[in-house]
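Cross-posted from the bioinformatics board.
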Amino acid sequence: MVKKTRQKELILRTLQSNPFHPTAVSIYDEVRKEMPHISLATVYRNLRLFTDMGEISELEISGGLSRFEVRTDNHGHFWCNTCESVFDIEMIDKELNGRVAREKGFEVSNYRLVLRGLCPDCQPARQADTISSLGKEPED
Amino acid sequence: MVKKTRQKELILRTLQSNPFHPTAVSIYDEVRKEMPHISLATVYRNLRLFTDMGEISELEISGGLSRFEVRTDNHGHFWCNTCESVFDIEMIDKELNGRVAREKGFEVSNYRLVLRGLCPDCQPARQADTISSLGKEPED
DNA sequence: CTACTTGCAAAATATTTGCGTTATT
DNA sequence: AATAACGCAAATATTTTGCAAGTAG
């Protein structure tokens, strides 16, 4: 029997209001503002509980630190090289990816796609001529 | 100045001959057969060195344990739910994936795709209608 | 009440690092 | 001979767990 506690509610509410796929420690830092005596173990414990119950999902994408999000459906992620934020990417070709594997006899149940690069906020301004002296203009 | 050592050669040779994307500990277990006094730290140290030099690549796909491979080009992976082996998947739609993100203003430099499911060896025999017998009846 | 949950500290897991010694160039 | 690399142990970093005390149902 899972009991409702102030800690659980606060942790879930915090995650729901954070679109950047925070780590357990980020969530800990945030909930501590409202509940200073909460333990990091409680945060980890409840994030694991929610994950096991299928209410949230855990993203093991950023090397070492797990991140969490409220979405539980299959979708891609974009992880910025500079600010390290993680964004959701709606995939349109999941079918295609699956087919590639299926052709070789693999049975695909789900996938994890992480794109790396620069998010809009972290890209150097491209419209300004003033920075053109740096001469770095990435082209496809 | 990077010096050539028996340890480095053995570690690299072991990785080159293993197509299953082994972890550092797997590699350690393997090289110890030939060099019993080698240290796990040496394995980790050299895997990191090779990775930093771009000679091999590190895969952070399996939650906790890093895996390594000799390929350094961008490609996908299939991670079996049962045997936990990791296989290479040649992507044909990397462009498409990139475009999805680019349309939203993201600048994609590389990607990581991990498909989860069952590899050919771990799939239950599908031809049999009944599961009356424990023995698998291969009939390809 | 009594079973689940918390907070704290210690343990567990994975990887890195300090240091004195060994081996490569 | 100089210095990169090794082996070992200790240190880090992240997450989990044992336990006594607190709290929800």
